Amino acid sequence: MASDELMLIHDADLLARGERVLGDEFKAMSERVLRATELTSRLNVLPFDEEAGKSALFEQLLGRPLGETVTIYPPFYTDNGLNLQLGERVFINQGCTFLDYAGIRLGDGVMVGPKATFITVGHPVDPEERRRILTGAPIDVAENVWIGAGAMILPGVSIGRDAVIAAGAVVADDVPARSLVAGPKASVRRSW
């Protein structure tokens, strides 16, 4: 088993007998994905100034009220929502996606540009394991980080305080504090 294995998608014994049976944990995850999708579908068609409706839907998505100093501009997408932790003064622009099953934490003062994507889950590269196992790891974004438009943050990444992620960067490795990363495979371009 891989060290970053999250759950079995299928019951291996039943699969060996030719039955397609999802594991209990995966079934529960699938049900939450359907619920989160239903909630975000409703959220994303509300008029922009419909604050009460947006607040009620965010509370159902996150499992708690949205913090008073947090700003999220729809459209907003998540596959779970319950594992998304948002600090004070977090700003999330339009069209962002948070696949947060393994957990995402955005520290105080984080700013997220439009269409940024955070992904905490995936599958093994090995084709024999790919349909059987869901892998993943949490994403941790420290305080005062700026994530540019269209950036993609992959499973297990930690981003240090005051760092900047350039627009369009794909972040697969940890980012040191007070540094700028850029490029299709994000790498440190400078530090301060």
Report on the architecture of this protein.
By secondary structure, the protein is of the alpha/beta class. The strands form 4 sheets. The chain has a 7-stranded mixed β-sheet, with no helix packed on it. A 5-stranded parallel β-sheet has the order 3-6-9-14-17. It has a 4-stranded parallel β-sheet with strand order 4-7-12-15, with no helix packed on it. It is flat. The mean pLDDT is 90.
Short account of what is shown:
The protein is of the alpha/beta class and 192 residues long.
Query: Are there runs of 5+ residues with pLDDT below 50, and where?
Result: none
Query: Roughly what percent helix?
Result: 10-25%
Can you list the strand order of the major beta sheet?
2-5-8-13-16-18-19
- What is the 3D form? flat
Mean pLDDT value: 90
Percentage of residues in strands: 25-35%
The structure class reads alpha/beta
What pattern of helices and strands is seen along the backbone?
EHHHEEEEEEEEEHEEEEEEEEE
Helical stretch tally: 4
Main sheet record: 7 strands, mixed
Between the first and last Cα atoms, what is the distance in angstroms? 40 Å
- Write down how many β-strands occur, each being a DSSP E stretch of 2 or more residues: 19
Rg, rounded, reads 18 Å
